[in-house]
Amino acid sequence: MTSIADIEIPADGTGLSELFEAVPSLSCEMERVIASNGHGLWLSGAAQEELEEALADASAIGEYSLISSEGDRWLYDIQFDPDTLDVFEVVLEESGTVLSASASNRSWLLSIRFVDRESVSTLYDRLVDNDVSPTIVRLFDVTEETHSQCGLTARQYETLVAAIDHGYFEIPREVSMQELSEELDISHQALSERLRRAYRALVTSELNVSEEETTAPPIPTN
Q1: pLDDT greater than 70 at residue 94
Q2: CATH for 175
Q3: Do 38 and 119 reside in the same domain of the chain?
Q4: How many CA atoms does the CB half-sphere of 214 hold within 13 Å?
Q5: Beta partners for 176?
Q6: Are 10 and 88 found together in one domain?
């Protein structure tokens, strides 16, 4: 049974430890990047010059390159030194999928999907063996009840998970709707309708909006 674990990991002992030492106000958010040799990480919390100076001085970071910028944050392709604990690689080796990852205040918070709870336990033990002290903030199994709590049907949930796994929501997209529909063996139109219904269900559930409130008032004609 699929399990979702939210795990907090101290930055000490990971690839960002030295960056937090140099830039205590650092904030970091992971983003998957096409054709990346390392990890796509959005960095913020300081001026670009200060961030790049910290990147250059960090022995745990092998190479880095600027990919994009957005306001006062910058997206870098970062490769960690082989001797540094790469938490993302450890997760992959334990058959986990990182759904989201962010770091601030010298701590990572990762939301990870596992095939079962045993994989969660194995990852936990591996981190401890590497002198990292993880904290499991939340752990739950994905069931039909979980779907319904979000207002999703099982098929809508599975479609959204497939869309995430194949990079449909990435910028730019890693897969087209046509390619995703072929992967799911449904028509392009059926996929489009299923996604729209899933979006509506999620927004309605998360914002606690009633069906009456989602009915738009008529648009004035003059």
Answers
A1: yes
A2: 1.10.10
A3: yes
A4: 13
A5: none
A6: yes
Which residue matches tokens 């983003």? Answer: 31
pLDDT per residue over 67-91, tens digit each?
A: 999 999 999 999 999 888 888 899 9
* Residues 33-51 pLDDT 10s: 655 668 899 999 999 999 9
Rg, C-alpha atoms of the chain: 20
Long-range contacts of 68-75 (CB under 8 A, 24+ apart): 70/42, 72/44, 73/27, 73/42, 73/43, 73/44, 74/42, 74/43, 74/44, 74/48, 75/31, 75/33, 75/40, 75/41, 75/42, 75/43
Domain that holds residue 187: 144-206
Asked whether residue 214 is assigned to any structural domain, the reply reads no
Residue 135 CA to residue 13 CA, distance in Å, equals 15
Task: Using the CB atoms, write b or e for 19-45: b if 16+ within 10 Å.
Answer: bbeebeebebbbbebeeeebbbbbbbb
Q: Can you give the pLDDT at residue 20?
A: 93
Is residue 121 included in any domain, yes or no?
yes
- Alpha helices (runs of H) in the chain, residue ranges in sequence order: 17-22, 48-57, 87-93, 117-129, 144-149, 154-165, 177-184, 188-206
Q: How far apart are CA 158 and CA 165, in angstroms?
A: 10
